[in-house]
Amino acid sequence: MNRDRLFTIIVLGSTQTLAWGSTYYLPAVLADEIARDTGVSTTWLFATFSLSLIISALLGPRAGRMIDRGSGNSVLAASNLLFAAGLVLLGFANSLIALQAAWIVLGVGMGIGLYDAAFAVLGRIYGTTARGAITGITLLAGFASTIGWPLTAWGAGTIGWRDTCLAWAALHVLVALPANYWLLPRPVIDAAVEKRVADQVVPIDRPMVLLAFAFAAAWVVTAGMAAHFPRILEATGATQTQAIAAGALIGPSQVAARLLEAGLMARFHPLVSARLAALTHPIGAAVLLLAGGGVASSAFAVLHGSGNGILTIARGTVPLALFGPENYGYRLGLIGLPSRFLSALAPLGFAVLLEHIGAQILAVSAGLSLAALAALCLLRRPAPEPLCAE
């Protein structure tokens, strides 16, 4: 990897870490304090947060089209301005309406400034060779919760949650915005290509539908497990201590899997990685249901986390490998729309299922993952490879 590409990965990986840590991961730490201070219930807070995720999903195709037509630097820089504005509004909010306004602004920012947009920017810069760069930024931004949660908690405990939001906003304006706008490479823009992309209608064909279904099914599992992981393990017989200890393994497992994707798996077509990743959760669920949470919690966490780590990369690398770099950002937005929409509703759905069927929710999550695997196996690829060869 040359020095310029490594620099790009470090810059974009760092700004993505800030973007995720100060928005998507914020409510997990601050929800209770915001609720106590504003008098708004946590239920309403998380409902508002879900609304912001739906808004971000709907904006994905539009953001991708904007990046396809020209430089993504401006799009990512605009997201930093929106993140900063939303965080300032959040820091001064004293009512449900004010909180909703803040999260609507943050939702627009997430729609144009998180992974799909970053992947589209890399596709615009590096074309079909962007796979390594996509893996690189997810490797760095995989630490967003590891960094963001402790920093947010420390800020809330020292300067208060409101000033913590303002501090995150300042980082977006003073650090992330100039980095995204001036430090990222700008692709050479061909006027003829730009006009063709602007006028071109992208067909929603069978491969796009299969990919959209696969990622939607996988992301429902990811979002549902993220919201209820300790409770699900406790339902299988794990103690609270065992469940929390197992949950701590998910992050390192994601990072380890991404290192594997960057090394050994880089020689295979991205579909191979995606199919293997879709299989890890069902294997872990089967082990957990058979052995019980007291014994198999850690194994399940490692298998689930490693699958998540690679599936995040696959969202960017598989469409690039199948369709190429032209209209890549717009395709990402279309393919990712169902998964981003459904992942906003998944925590509520998993809560209802967990209440009614307990540990058997793992059969549901395993079934969704296997459905994602089936869709991925129906996709054609250039040459037969080890899993699901055609």
UniProtKB/TrEMBL annotation:
The keyword Transmembrane applies. It is a multi-pass membrane protein. It is found in: Cell membrane. Signal peptide: none annotated. It comes from Vineibacter terrae. This is MFS transporter. It comes from the Bacteria. The keyword Nucleotide-binding does not apply. Keywords: Cell membrane, Membrane, Transmembrane, Transmembrane helix. GO terms for cellular component: plasma membrane. One of its GO terms (molecular function) is transmembrane transporter activity. Residues 8-384 form the Major facilitator superfamily (MFS) profile domain. Gene3D superfamilies: MFS general substrate transporter like domains. The chain crosses the membrane at residues 43-63, 75-97, 103-122, 134-154, 166-184, 209-229, 283-303, 359-379.
